[in-house]
């Protein structure tokens, strides 16, 4: 298989040629934070482990204070399928969500290997070629900080959080708005340029701040509208669906409980 770069055809069965031209991105550090919702999470995990990835990669599931029953199910899945599992509660007493701890740890691991950080959330199912193609597209764009796949529903219609992408052309779109971390790749050059220890610990979610920081540091953020992933919005935190069904209840719970800070 080959790709066009600068008018020349390169064989992607050996990534060494591309490395020498566009710099290093030696593999993928793939992560999935999980909070209960094990049925959806298992679909995510299995789709990642059956992906077509002819490059080095690691895959770690971060269990963020799931119930004891679901924690046991995750450990059984880890033994069955062979992915790494980290129980976040062993490392911090902070209540869920612990996205900040996970992101900081994942950044450390990624930089130690010179790998890109690829986040696939637990309510997302990828196609066999999604991660490979996302890697290739990011690799071929030296200015890329973050590359993301667009999310769709069971019928193939673009859904939350990328409804605005329905108006975008097919292919690579450089976006000024933030990218969601549903299925997003953060390149090593960007990871080296911004220390996640600088993120605001009072917040719960960081895709907005990190996307903005990528642009601020001179990188481009790309959304690939021809790379689609199946997304069940808020699968791991179904209470957030109140935002669409009962918005007053959602905002009451959000502000009285100090939840969902972006």
Description:
By secondary structure, the chain is an alpha/beta fold. The chain has nine helices and eleven strands. The protein has helices spanning 16-22, 38-49, 68-81, 99-113, 130-139, 188-193, 207-216, 242-245, 247-256, and strands at residues 2-5, 8-11, 28-34, 57-63, 84-87, 116-120, 124-125, 144-152, 172-174, 183-186, 220-231. Strands 3, 4, 5, 6, 7, 8, 9, 10 and 11 form a nine-stranded mixed sheet that branches. Strands 1-2 form a two-stranded antiparallel sheet. Helix 2 (38-49) packs parallel to helix 3 (68-81). It is globular, with a radius of gyration of 18 Å. The model is unreliable at 1-22 (pLDDT under 50).
Strand content: 15-25%
Number of helices: 9
Rg from alpha-carbon coordinates = 18 Å
Q: Kindly state the number of beta strands.
A: 11
Q: How would you spell out the order of helices and strands? A: EEHEHEHEHEEHEEEHHEHH
Q: Please state the structural category.
A: alpha/beta
Shape: globular
Q: Quick one: biggest sheet?
A: 9 strands, mixed
Terminal Cα separation, in Å? 41 Å
Outline the low-pLDDT stretches.
1-22
- Which percent bin holds the helix content? 25-40%
Mean pLDDT over the residues: 86
């Amino acid at each position: 298989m080959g790709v066009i770069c600068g008018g020349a055809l390169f064989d992607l069965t050996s990534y060494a040629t591309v490395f020498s031209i566009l710099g290093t991105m030696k593999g993928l550090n793939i992560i999935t934070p999980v909070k209960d919702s094990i049925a959806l999470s298992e679909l995510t995990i299995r789709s990642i482990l059956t992906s077509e990835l002819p490059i080095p990669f690691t895959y770690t599931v971060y269990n963020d204070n799931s119930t004891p029953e679901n924690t046991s199910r995750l450990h059984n899945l880890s033994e069955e399928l062979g992915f790494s599992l980290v129980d976040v509660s062993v490392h911090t007493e902070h209540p869920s969500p612990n996205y900040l701890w996970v992101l900081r740890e994942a950044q450390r691991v990624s930089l130690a290997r010179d790998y890109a950080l690829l986040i696939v959330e637990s309510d997302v199912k990828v196609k066999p070629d999604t991660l490979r193609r996302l890697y290739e597209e990011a690799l071929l764009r030296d200015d890329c900080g973050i590359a993301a796949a667009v999310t769709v529903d069971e019928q193939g219609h673009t859904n939350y959080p990328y409804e605005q992408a329905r108006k975008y052309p097919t292919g690579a779109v450089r976006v000024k708005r933030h990218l969601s971390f549903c299925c997003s790749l953060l390149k090593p050059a960007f990871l080296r340029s911004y220390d996640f220890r600088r993120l605001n610990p009072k917040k719960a979610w960081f895709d907005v701040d990190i996307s903005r920081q990528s642009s601020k540091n001179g990188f481009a953020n790309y959304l690939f509208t021809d790379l689609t992933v199946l997304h069940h919005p808020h699968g791991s935190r179904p209470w957030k669906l109140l935002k669409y069904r009962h918005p007053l209840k959602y905002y009451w719970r959000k502000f009285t409980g100090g939840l969902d800070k972006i």
